[in-house]
Design goal:
Elements (H helix, E strand, L loop, with lengths): L12 E5 L10 H9 L5 H9 L5 H8 L4 H20 L9 H10 L3 E5 L4 H11 L7 E3 L13 H10 L7 E5 L2 H10 L3 E5 L6 H6 L4 E3 L5 H8 L2
Parallel strand pairs: 1-2, 1-4, 2-3, 4-5, 5-6
Helix pairs in contact: 1-4, 3-4, 4-6
Length: about 230
């Protein structure tokens, strides 16, 4: 579904989220959060679901009431728990994701994979999938000054590194409201939500998504149609 009229600015850079957008989540994030905070409440679990896509340390700061030491400890436990799940083979690409990434590059577009995870976890996921070279750029919050989504920093860092002519030449794709807000704040002309992750179509549209797709495999056709 398309919420806004398309423009004709060619997309030079596509910034894609990982878990829930290009990589299957299947509850792994929530399981890792539960391992990191075994005493968590139902309210905390709801906050985790609502803030999917954000930098994980910022979520733990909220859950620990701003106690930085506890937040850092919980974040380390989360990253360790998620890493163990990845090492157990519970990490797989979403249907069509790999073909989409390769097609976008073949079309001459720069691709960037972004995440709210720490760099070590992001690299572990990429190795598990054999994706070390599948994208031109891979970014985590630390690569963009430390602020994750919904701030625009990772998108803007990708745009600077790619040398795009305008932020209007950027497309952002994600499965959460945080992904959408990050893309909008960066000025991307395409900010597409996908229905393969944490948030449903209504949530993505309420956040301001310009498009909602069934999955990332539909992205190349969207860009081709929009550019005529």
């Amino acid at each position: 579904m398309n919420r806004t009229a398309a423009t004709r600015t060619p997309v030079e850079l596509v910034v894609l989220d990982m878990a829930g957008t290009t990589v299957a989540d299947d509850g792994l994030v929530e399981r890792a959060f539960a391992a990191a905070l075994p005493e968590h409440t139902a309210e905390a679990a709801e906050h985790v679901r609502a803030t999917m896509g954000e930098s994980k340390i910022s979520v733990f700061r909220h859950l620990t009431g701003g106690d930085e030491e506890r937040a850092q400890e919980a974040n380390r436990a989360f990253e360790g728990a998620y890493a163990r799940l990845v090492d157990q083979g519970l990490c797989a690409p979403l249907p069509g994701a790999e073909d989409t990434l390769r097609r976008l590059r073949a079309e001459g577009r720069t691709t960037a994979l972004t995440t709210g995870f720490a760099r070590d976890t992001q690299d572990r996921i990429l190795r598990a999938l054999g994706w070390e070279d599948i994208a031109d750029l891979t970014l985590c919050p630390a690569d963009a000054g430390g602020r994750g989504r919904p701030h625009p920093d990772m998108v803007l860092t990708a745009a600077l590194r790619a040398g795009v002519g305008s932020v209007a030449a950027v497309a952002v794709v994600g499965d959460t409201a945080s992904d959408i807000r990050s893309g909008l704040r960066a000025g991307a002309s395409v900010v597409a939500g996908v229905r393969t992750g944490a948030h449903d179509a209504d949530t993505l549209l309420d956040a301001g998504a310009t498009h909602v797709l069934d999955g990332v495999a539909d992205l190349p056709a969207l860009l081709a149609d929009r550019e005529g």
